[in-house]
Amino acid sequence: MASFAQLNESYLVTEVIVVNNATIDNLPFPESEPAGVAFCQSLFGSTTVWKQTSYNANFRKNYAGIGYTYDPVLDAFIPPQPYPSWLLNTTICQWEAPVPYPNDGKRYKWDEATLSWVEVPTPKP
Length: 125
What we know:
Oligomer: single chain
Number of strands: 9
Helix content: 10-25%
Radius of gyration: 19 Å
Number of domains: 2
Shape: elongated
Strand content: 25-35%
Strand order of the largest sheet: 2-1-3
Distance between the termini: 45 Å
Structural class: mainly beta
């Protein structure tokens, strides 16, 4: 099965559909993309914009999801930015906190107001 993401005029993913491999002539990416795009446009309209996405992130860095953005320069799908302070790692196209997550086995949540990780209390039994 192959997956295709529909993009709006701002490159925002608005839909992700799965296409049978027979529909794309069992071709591998990138050869499969034109056939898949043509199929998607036959269903949703000839002016719709589609990009193939990989469930295993074998290409375009991340599997596209609704709300993700396609970056044509990086040729990658980028998830929504979780916090304004987080920076995009353009190598893996993932957002990273400005402070690394603590590696002490405890649970933390990000606090945007203090730009730090705050420990999540463990419930008492």
